## 1
Amino acid sequence: MSEPEARPPVDHQGTERAEPRSRSFTDVLRQINARMVLGALAAVALIVFIAQNTDETRVNFLGWDWDLPVFLLLLITIVLSVVCTEMVGWYMGRRRRNRSR
């Protein structure tokens, strides 16, 4: 068996041997999507939040005492909430799948 003959690259007009063009600034801007913009805005909001909430607060939990910055306490609370919510969702979905069998 012989390998198929390699064809030269074709551009959109159908002419052969299209030269690779360099990407312009506007081409790069077109590729920036809403997710990237929202991610950048969220990062800026998080930095502002951290900068404004650096005061320490006392935390008492199950006999333990900590001094934590407010932003760290809130971020830990958010992360634990998301983890617990995902675990409950996973468990309920697993239960639902087992009952449907």
Note: Strands lie at 56-61, 64-69.
## 2
Amino acid sequence: MGIRTYDEEFVARVKDFAVIGLYPAQIAERLGLEGQDRQEFLRDICSKKHPLHEEYLLSRANREQDLDASINELAAAGDVDALKLESYVRFHKEVDNLKMELFDV
């Protein structure tokens, strides 16, 4: 069985949904996928060997970078809530990195 391919428009829609923070099952719902198509899509987007998985992860990473940039910009402008959020996010990223380093989780 070969790797299933998706057209560019479909992949672009998946990436758009990933950028706004939707999970694979939510994306499948928004795309109106049902039955076998839904199962194959979920298998592909969750498979580390499939190109769709990589596109999904890159789009999610872009979302995080955009959020970080917005928070940093507001914090630099003196927004107290953004400063608190920036500190909170930085702390949790350090904790997550330490977990990954120590426990591969």
Note: The two ends are 31 Å apart (CA to CA).
## 3
Amino acid sequence: MRKLRDWLLPAWAGPEHPLLQYELSHFRGRGGRRGLIVQLATLSILLGGSAALYAATLLSPATGTNLTGLIWQSIYYPTLVLQLLTMIMALALGAAAVGGERSRKTWDNLRVTEFGAGLALRARWAGILYRLRAPITLILLVRFILIVGMLYDLTAFGGLYAQMLGAHARPPLPDWRLDLLLIALVITVNLLLPFLQIASVAAFGILLSVAVREQIYAAVIQMLVIAVQLAFAVAGALTIAQMMRSNTPPVSDWSYALFFGYTAFGDWGLLLAQLGSLGEIWHRVPFGTSISLGLMILLMALALAADGMIWLAARLSESQG
């Protein structure tokens, strides 16, 4: 397993790399594996308690809603809040990546090493993800639970549930095997999208820390990004909730853009993480079955964008410090 890990990871992400060792040394003394367990347990209790409180006070389950649907409805908004907080922390840690080294007069020493600014920034990028490993793990754990629920729901109606979803799509899907392929894409998106979103935000923060030396300007940009993300997430959640409760399916072209944009950048695919909700989207949104295909393309774009931002930050660092 270790050989496979070393083969898959680039050299700068290897645990024995000196720059990554330097980066991880800043917070290795904060509990290590035991600290991760404590953080994960604390976050799990808070998330579970919030979901239970939400279900008890605000949720009015409709008649006929199955167990997986109730779990998804209960956990949806608490998980959305956790994702937003994780994004904010990733942005803040990235934006402080170089400023701290500059204040300690150690940034120039890192830039002139044989590894260069590029590897130093990539190690800092990996360090941010390592530091946020507890909330990232919980976000992925929630999605694993929802995916297990999706797989369980596929056995409903004698295993014909997927075929029924495709038959009620707009337009109907021509073959039930295509239904299963699209559901498999949804599962893949749900596991990869949150990690790439957080990694992209951290990369943007690192680029910001290099490109904007004045902390006040960097802080203003961070606040603007956070405000836009929060406004989009809240407005999208309210608008889509109202549309999903409506008895009349939307027919306007902008509904596809709204659902795609929200699942891509608002809730990171949580709206697709339950077969009942997925079936509603397929039924209500024209060509909504293609949203998962678009999200797969977005995954590749996010990976390229994150790598590109780190590359640009390295070039700026080499040219202006």
Note: The mean pLDDT is 84.
## 4
Amino acid sequence: MLTLQQIKENPARVIERLAVKGFDGKEAIERIIELDDSRRALQLDNDTKAAELNKCAARIGALMKEGKKEEAEAAKAEVAAMKQQQKETAEKLAAAESQIRDILLSVPNLPCDAVPAGLTAADNVVEKTGGPMPNLPEDALPHWDLAKKYNLIDFDLGVKITGAGFPVYIGKGARLQRALIQFFLDEAGKSGYLEIQPPYVVNEASGYGTGQLPDKEGQMYYINEDNLYLIPTAEVPVTNIYRDVIIAEDKLPIKNCAYSACFRREAGSYGKDVRGLNRLHQFDKVEIVRIEKPETSYAALEEMKDHVQGLLEKLGLPWHILRLCGGDMSFTSAITFDFEVFSAAQKRWLEVSSVSNFETYQANRLKCRYRGADKKPQLCHTLNGSALALPRIMAALLENNQTPRGIVVPECLRKYTGFDIID
């Protein structure tokens, strides 16, 4: 969440930047400032009363020693009244702090200056394009037909077992899926990311820490009896490792990667845009997460983009990078770059990765800090990215590599699959 310092230093700029995300923050920001002024006054009053109580306690002790019991009893009555007043002040202070936090949780992160204006995906900017465009015949099959033809994925069986959006991978399809996961993890390891194997369920505090709560509770699967959530991405448990942690400066940057299954309730179930692997309720993904000092986070963001680009180049897929406009960004992000691959049979671009810098927004929720040279704890910057999400990568690989002989496996995956063609 935003810090009070950010808001109070330049409230007009905060309101202006929130508008880039299509968020009218004037009322919320003004209310936060008003409540904080009240909170500060209450805190001063509370501190003053505490000092007065200490003086009274010392005076009562002195009066008792002097044998002035009546004066001591009168002072005790005065103290009791002051304690009641202090209790009421403390309650008002806690209420003001709670209101401030509630409003802060409802305000999105500020987009950085590099974020383009715009409200929809149509306003995103293509930053870079690469990779060979396949030349497929007109009768090229989409991946759902290829999956059926070669017995790689059974979508109907998934519906029988669970429901729409839960495919069953079979034989070489399962092996190709596993090959992609291992390839992505190995490449992350080569780039210096320490592998983490996190839980697939998290508690409420973790959801608040990374910003899924209270913004996206309707998009997550909820385990009512235990008040736990299935993770929408490994970002959530991995970043929460550093919740309520003060990191030594010489331990930064921290670079983690993790494979996990991901669960999303909001996945659609109708139309060609969500057919097959295009949108699922359960899917596999390798995530990269970084904890950085503020002055290094944007260089780290470029490194993460280069890492994802390198994966797509090794897979031989056509790709482009989008700089997302304010209105198409997530609630928590300061800047996001989406990677899309071209699906030759569907003749459309498919998103396979988002790489984001959250600056201090998540860190402030998490209380993730580092101790610098001045020994004063400072908020870290957090970043994450998909490297990569599997379903649409699988879709593009099947479609773009189909030949009359079968589906050719990219060379970088063959040591993992044990076969170079699916026929």
Note: The first helix runs from residue 4 to 9.
